[in-house]
Amino acid sequence: MNVSAGSPRRVGVFGGAFDPPHLAHTALALAVLEQLQLDELRVVPTGQAWHKSRSLTPAAHRLEMVRLAFGAMERVVVDPRETLRSGPSYTVDTLSELHAEFPLAQLFLIIGEDQAVALPTWHRWREIADFATICVAARAGFAGARGTFDALHQGLAPFQTIELPPMDVSATDIRERLATHQNIASLVFEPVARYIAHHHLYQTA
Fold first, then answer.
1. Where are the domains of the chain?
2. How far is CA 62 from the centre of its chain?
3. Residue 127: CA count within 13 A, CB half-sphere
4. For 10-199, CATH number?
5. Quick count: other Cβ atoms within 10 Å of Cβ 45?
6. Within 10 A of 29 (CB to CB), how many other CB atoms are there?
7. Residue 123: exposed, middle, or buried by beta-carbon count in 10 A (0-12, 13-18, 19+)?
8. Which tens digit of pLDDT belongs to each residue from 126-170?
């Protein structure tokens, strides 16, 4: 890496439901490790998602799938803290905890462009920039770029963008495919697909 030995440790924070984790998630992880020259990327599965109308798959399943998807990647740490926390999972709490644990580190929060547009609705959202640089990963075909930067310019800085290759993969599509017994082999890592099948996840009643 080009970061000098005397520079602060660079730690990325990549949260999400990961319901299930898929190849676009791991592609984003590889992109941020390279483009942000991170020393470490923390992948943080959501515990209770305050902002989602649907119920998530139990946290224990999602955490294990994240370990299967990311466990072999260098400089990636699967961080279970939000799945162990009672009450809703708020990003600002996670960043505050990490800042306390690593006070000399430079934190980078990784979010998608659609999340960035919704940022003003997040719990204590203006405090997020006190702890981390916000890094927005633009999804191919997402039309909210203008809203993204309007949201981030509402007194919230610093931020930067992450360039991603086009990948037409989403957890919603995977869940819909599984509910109708379609193949997902090209969308997730094989151990994740095997885990889903073994535990009969995302099956219709």
1. 10-199
2. 13
3. 11
4. 3.40.50.620
5. 29
6. 22
7. middle
8. 899 999 999 998 765 555 454 555 555 555 556 788 988 788 899
